[in-house]
Amino acid sequence: MSTALKLEDKDKETVSSSGIDLSEKSRSASFYQQDNHTKLFQSFQEGIDILSTDEALAKYPEAKEYFGKNFRLLNRDFPQDTEGGYFIRVKKGKIVELPIQACLFLKAQGFKQKVHNLIIIEEGAKAYLITGCSASHTADEGFHLGISEFFIQKGGYLNFTMIHSWKEDVSVKPISIAHVEDSGVFISNYVCLRPVKDITMYPTAVLAGNKSRAIFNSLILSHPNSLHDVGSRTILRGDSTQTEMIARAVSLGGKVIARGHIKAENKNVKGHLECRGLVLSEKGQIHAIPEMETEFRDVDLSHEAAIGKISKDEIEYLCSRGFTKDQAQSIIVRGFMDISIMGLPGLLKKEIEKIEEATLKGSF
Amino acid sequence: MLKVENLTVTVAGKEILKDINLEIKRGEVVILFGPNGSGKSTLLKTIMGFSGYTAKSGRIIFKDQVLNGFPTEERVKLGMGLMYQLPPKIRGVKLQQLAQHLSKDKEKNRTLAVKLSLEEHLMRDVNVDFSGGEMKRSELFQVLLQNPDLLLLDEPESGVDIENIAVMGNILNEHLKKEGKSALIITHTGYILDYVQATRGCVLLDGKFWCVGDPKEMFQAIKQSGYDKCKECICPQH
Fold this sequence. Notes:
heterodimer, A: alpha/beta, 2 domains, 8 helices, B: four-stranded antiparallel sheet, 12 strands
């Protein structure tokens, strides 16, 4: 992949830090867009369609039906001035064990990348998708708008992991809506550990089908002068639907607004929201805003939020085992940002742990 | 090994320990009795150098060094180890991680984990969803891997079932029988006295030492008459 893309070494490092495997050895399919150019798309496995959204709209008549469908469902408008983005479809019954990867890369100075992605997991299909969004050192004052529409059909399963690896002067605005049918599962993992100017996102999962599930996990490290206004929302529309949201934020001086919203529109539904935040710097700010609403009695919605500095007891406990205060703090923060909450397959988990380790090492 | 001289300790401005004198020699095991709130845990935490436990006057001397002002980890390096009464939960940090830090000897780690029925707990977050007994076993596990010369044990057996008390008591005794190991042990239940060879007992009441004597006899007396009687001095040795 890297030979085809002719990336300079610095960019290779940046792209890899967003979870993209440039060797493609551990991936079942790849997509790469730089600014507004689709540079590469290939699938190594049958049953996966992967190409740019523009091409998919021209090639598949049904792609047009998907385009904007989730927004219409919620009576919401969406930006029309997008260029590219990826179309990924996993065919009915297809179980894809190796992750599919998609890279959205900002390269040109001041470029405003606006993409519209369509992800379709057909009936009974299962896939892991890792999307790496990053910015080259040359992409000063860049902007990224990423619209993603997910369609999880009956019994389908998608574990979607998005890793952001931006820089201090890049603004980012992802807009996502997932529609999940009967017994479908949508897991959305979000990891953002490097500096960014601002990120605003509030992805929504509509659990339309009975017994469908949505899980949102996020790990955020907020650097000085960064603003993360991030949340997740689930609409429990079908009978016996379930959702869980876990947000972990560490502020090194940036501001994090952690939102969460669970809306019960049916009976027998269950939702839990958990937000934990650690403020490690005087300048840091974390604002947790959990919301829950229901018109039914037979629902089980709960939330827990805990924000503050690292507990003195935990630090002292580790000191009493011989660690210095600095070591203790670092161990606690690493543990706090534990990615094992994300339900990732072994290989992907190891890769992301490596990325996290490298980023955290440079941050303390 | 340890000398506490005229130690007065305040916590949040309140005097908790008053003019405490205590000496533990190499190889000695001292039992600390006292009702809730009498200052037992405060004494252990002050010896460990925890923040918020201010020595207003007096000295703590360990292996001929005056410890006042030493950070906790330095005290650990010198050979102190604390077993917590109620350890904090640390999310995302596996017991295994701490074990590997405490002792590089993998075989020793594994054997001790097996003895204390903690193999499955090694891959779990430290103290998260551990039962009371599991926490105590994990505490003993960690502190023994640390292999300190002075063990500070804060209610090692409370909340532990009888079977596991025997397991823990025997393991602890093995450690204490080694050359030059000492301990200061807080107990309410007294079970631990059946397993370790305690040199003497002390009663702490309202932040002051009242009594020193044979630990088993003291425990029997306290069991029969309560701590109030200690003030009237019912112990035969006193």
